[in-house]
């Protein structure tokens, strides 16, 4: 049977999320001469998104429209299942994002298809696939040999290099018409946070704070530093427990897993539950008044000092440089 790989694409604020392109890179490794398709559930991909995807190896885009109040797990998952059962791909790839974590187990159970989660590396030799994933809260990596012809795989964001662009080609765009049943728990209202937050998973620079923030003043300094360098604010569990930050900003085992270019940890001790969510950052800078804090074991650069002294000085220096 010819290889056919389906990627569950993600669009955020009208833009294609980078994880979709990472899934395309993995699909290119797996497909050889097979067909690659991208499925969008929720909104029709824009012409710009279609052109971007056409620069890679995908030959087809399938999409189905979900109104805003229909974009809940119950309807989203069933709609994806319907498309996949029609298209019959041999492999399904999606990001290990909030969406992917909600979708992949459902599809695995409904399609009776094995699931491999949070893959961080892949090799294919002689039709055998060796997939690398982290285990024991990121303390170890294991390599598993996959000899199955069909499976579902979630890809850790920022773990794979984006595929090389090729010359744009004609790509098939197809709408899937799906009869949607009334959900058991319908969505009544969507309330959006007044504070605009950048998505942590796709962020290139993250400024994160922990219990060392102490109060609202410390959190405000964190926001100022992030603004000065065009970064995104994230937090460790300690900051959430203090009540100064929302849990949606949590990074770690029970929060988001990030892989930014630069990660600045302010007042974060470095508990393993936090480390597993950020230790794949390319460069880690730690600021802490305890020279023995475990975060320094992970850091490329460290500053031993009080964040209420270090951050204001750093912000002043950065703002001064930006004005020059």
TrEMBL record:
<dbReference type="InterPro" id="IPR014731">
    <property type="entry name" value="ETF_asu_C"/>
</dbReference>
<feature type="domain" description="Electron transfer flavoprotein alpha/beta-subunit N-terminal">
    <location>
        <begin position="5"/>
        <end position="194"/>
    </location>
</feature>
<feature type="binding site">
    <location>
        <position position="211"/>
    </location>
    <ligand>
        <name>FAD</name>
    </ligand>
</feature>
<dbReference type="InterPro" id="IPR001308">
    <property type="entry name" value="ETF_a/FixB"/>
</dbReference>
<keyword id="KW-0274">FAD</keyword>
<feature type="binding site">
    <location>
        <begin position="267"/>
        <end position="274"/>
    </location>
    <ligand>
        <name>FAD</name>
    </ligand>
</feature>
<feature type="binding site">
    <location>
        <begin position="306"/>
        <end position="307"/>
    </location>
    <ligand>
        <name>FAD</name>
    </ligand>
</feature>
<keyword id="KW-0813">Transport</keyword>
<keyword id="KW-0285">Flavoprotein</keyword>
<feature type="binding site">
    <location>
        <position position="288"/>
    </location>
    <ligand>
        <name>FAD</name>
    </ligand>
</feature>
<comment type="similarity">
    <text>Belongs to the ETF alpha-subunit/FixB family.</text>
</comment>
<protein>
    <submittedName>
        <fullName>Electron transfer flavoprotein subunit alpha</fullName>
    </submittedName>
</protein>
<dbReference type="Pfam" id="PF00766">
    <property type="entry name" value="ETF_alpha"/>
</dbReference>
<dbReference type="GO" id="GO:0033539">
    <property type="term" value="P:fatty acid beta-oxidation using acyl-CoA dehydrogenase"/>
</dbReference>
<dbReference type="GO" id="GO:0009055">
    <property type="term" value="F:electron transfer activity"/>
</dbReference>
<dbReference type="InterPro" id="IPR029035">
    <property type="entry name" value="DHS-like_NAD/FAD-binding_dom"/>
</dbReference>
<dbReference type="Pfam" id="PF01012">
    <property type="entry name" value="ETF"/>
</dbReference>
<keyword id="KW-0249">Electron transport</keyword>
<dbReference type="InterPro" id="IPR014730">
    <property type="entry name" value="ETF_a/b_N"/>
</dbReference>
<dbReference type="InterPro" id="IPR018206">
    <property type="entry name" value="ETF_asu_C_CS"/>
</dbReference>
<dbReference type="GO" id="GO:0050660">
    <property type="term" value="F:flavin adenine dinucleotide binding"/>
</dbReference>
<dbReference type="InterPro" id="IPR014729">
    <property type="entry name" value="Rossmann-like_a/b/a_fold"/>
</dbReference>
């Amino acid at each position: 049977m010819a290889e056919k790989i389906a990627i569950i694409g993600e669009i955020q604020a009208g833009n294609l999320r980078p994880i979709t392109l990472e899934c395309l890179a993995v699909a290119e490794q797996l497909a050889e001469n097979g067909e690659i398709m991208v499925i969008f559930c929720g909104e029709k991909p824009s012409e710009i998104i279609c052109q971007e995807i056409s620069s890679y190896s995908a030959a087809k885009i399938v999409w189905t429209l979900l109104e805003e109040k229909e974009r809940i797990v119950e309807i989203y998952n069933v709609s994806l299942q319907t498309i996949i059962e029609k298209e019959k791909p041999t492999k399904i790839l999606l990001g290990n994002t909030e969406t992917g974590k909600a979708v992949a187990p459902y599809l695995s159970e409904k399609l009776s298809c094995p699931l491999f989660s949070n893959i961080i590396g892949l090799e294919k030799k002689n039709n055998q696939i060796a997939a690398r994933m982290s285990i024991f809260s990121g303390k170890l990596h294991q390599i598993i040999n996959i000899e199955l012809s069909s499976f579902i795989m979630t890809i850790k964001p920022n773990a794979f290099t984006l595929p090389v662009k090729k010359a744009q080609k004609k790509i098939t765009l197809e709408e899937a018409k799906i009869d949607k049943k009334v959900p058991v728990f319908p969505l009544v209202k969507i309330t959006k946070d007044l504070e605009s937050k950048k998505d942590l998973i796709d962020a290139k620079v993250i400024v994160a704070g922990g219990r060392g923030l102490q109060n609202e003043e410390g959190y405000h300094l964190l926001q100022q530093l992030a603004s000065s360098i065009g970064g995104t604010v994230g937090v460790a569990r300690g900051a959430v427990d203090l009540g100064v930050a929302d849990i949606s900003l949590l990074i770690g085992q029970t929060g988001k897993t990030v892989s930014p270019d630069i990660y600045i940890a302010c007042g974060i001790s470095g508990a393993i539950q936090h480390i597993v969510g950020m230790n794949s950052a390319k460069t880690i800078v730690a600021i802490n008044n305890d020279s023995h804090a475990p975060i320094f074991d992970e850091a490329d650069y460290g500053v031993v000092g009080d964040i209420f002294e270090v951050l204001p000085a750093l912000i002043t220096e950065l703002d001064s440089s930006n004005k020059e």
